[in-house]
């Protein structure tokens, strides 16, 4: 929320929550009906393809979200070290609102503007006009609109909402108040409306232009540098036509520089280029992968657990898992979940899911690409899971990590003896292996009433039971075991 919210701050469908997509339902149903009744040859492809195009935009953004979070967790080429807080995740949870707005405008434009219907698949002249209009009017007008939004009056009422995110994510690019997003839509509509009224529009150019905007927006806010240096070495003038993630990152940390949309030429023309742009770009490219102090090694549990990883869906990852509330969504995404089971069976390396900092300690969560059912199967057949855990331990040791915690079934006694197997195989390990025995024992011991003088331990003898018995004896409490 902006510091002093202005007019048209809230989105009109904010009260609908997760049901906001019903706004598009009439047109989606009607276009589907037209396709079924008229057939692919007679139906207007522009009308039919609007909704599938919106879906691809959602998928495009999600790919950027997952890849960006994975790369920033690894640390190589990362630009801003500041972590992502839950407040930012919640504030940016409505990133799909602008896609709904675009879909609504597309459908209304199709109904109101006769020239919007029956566009051909491709026209070269339309592509050239779009490129020229974007490089000229769109970039120029955006630059001055952006500078106006940084005036204290408009900034406090609108644009400060966007700048609340210092460490940006791809979806930060579309987090704006409703009125500001409408202004951007009208600006980006200049090329599309020009094509319609000049009779040079085509499906590929119209959808391609919106995809280009999404691509550049996501790239500019991804918080890791990915544009290689050789690009500017071979094409020096591209420096004025293509911004980089580090270039735009300075706008979010310095606020009064690097105002351009995607082409820095206007910053150079009007003297608003940040002097440290080139230096930050160079340092980000050279930045190595981060070496953690502590590694928590976990694994996937159920097929739906992939959505709750931080690199998965932000709307789910930021909230506790409640099966009843996500049942319908889980059913819809079940094919993706099934595919992930097959993929993780083939993928042979652990991956970083998130990073955190506690004072000066750097913590990373690594995920073994196996589900709980894989552990149960592998226990009977091969030692593939054990080998994956062992490789992760050796990699963490090589990176200089001081402690590795075995989480969930990675510490299973039957699988590796609570980690003892790897210590015996590699006696020169510098890293310290920790399982959950101490924590589990502490929970049990602290739950025992203080006046207790005798405790009976029942069940299978394990490392946890040994630790509990030892701690009880140290406290002067008699511990007895049930040999049955």
**What is the share of helical residues?**
40-55%
Q: Report the C-alpha radius of gyration, rounded.
A: 28 Å
- Based on helices, strands and strand pairing, what is the structural class? alpha/beta
Tell me the β content.
Answer: 5-15%
What's the overall geometry?
elongated
Mean pLDDT: 90
Itemize the secondary structure elements and their pairings.
Blueprint: H1 25-38, H2 45-74, H3 86-91, H4 97-112, H5 124-149, H6 152-157, H7 178-198, H8 203-220, H9 229-234, H10 245-254, H11 265-270, H12 277-286, E1 294-299, H13 314-317, H14 327-332, H15 334-346, E2 351-358, E3 361-368, H16 372-380, H17 384-398, E4 403-406, H18 413-416, H19 420-425, E5 432-434, H20 437-446, E6 454-457, H21 463-474, E7 478-481
Parallel strand pairs: 1-3, 1-4, 4-5, 6-7
Antiparallel strand pairs: 2-3
Describe the structure.
With 484 residues, this protein is an alpha/beta fold. It is 51% helix and 8% strand. It is built from 21 helices and 7 strands. It has a 5-stranded mixed sheet with strand order 2-3-1-4-5. A two-stranded parallel sheet has the order 6-7. α21 (463-474) links the parallel β6 (454-457) and β7 (478-481). α2 (45-74) runs parallel beside α8. The protein is elongated.
Short description:
With 484 residues, the protein is α/β, with parallel strands linked by helices. It is built from 21 helices and seven strands.
